[in-house]
Amino acid sequence: MPNWELKHCCKHEQIVFLATLGVCAVVILALWRTVLLLPFKLITVFIHEASHAIACKLTCGHVEGIQVHANEGGTTQTSGGVYWFILPAGLDTPGPLYRVCSLPCCCMDSARNNKDKNSAVHHFVHWCDEQLIFCL
């Protein structure tokens, strides 16, 4: 018979991480419609539109302009390029915000745990590699 008790399921760090994640989710949901998160939302829209522009450039197209609107919308005007590659390039909208926010956490965690100045640089380079692979 399986043991369904949760007495020793998680280490202290895991419980702290899950509690922090829960608190962050509640705070974000509570502040979602406020002006406090607007800059982060606009940065996310910009990164989304920039991903379309990068895909356009990678397929030898021309970016005519990028617009980010105050209503959290945006447009990227392109000409040329491979549209079946450009259009889906922005489909990872939550991804860029996660990737931007994960950088400081990655570097602070590595510096705190390893007490090594080069560790943060190493983790930053590794983080950049992960983002590049994720985008491809």
Automatic annotation (TrEMBL):
InterPro entries assigned to the protein according to its UniProt record, in alphabetical order: Peptidase_M50B-like (IPR049500)
Superkingdom, natural source: Eukaryota
Classification via Pfam families: Peptidase_M50B
Membrane-spanning parts: 15-32
Keyword annotations of the record: Membrane, Transmembrane, Transmembrane helix
PANTHER family: OS02G0221600 PROTEIN, PEPTIDASE M50B-LIKE-DOMAIN-CONTAINING PROTEIN
Protein name, per record: Uncharacterized protein
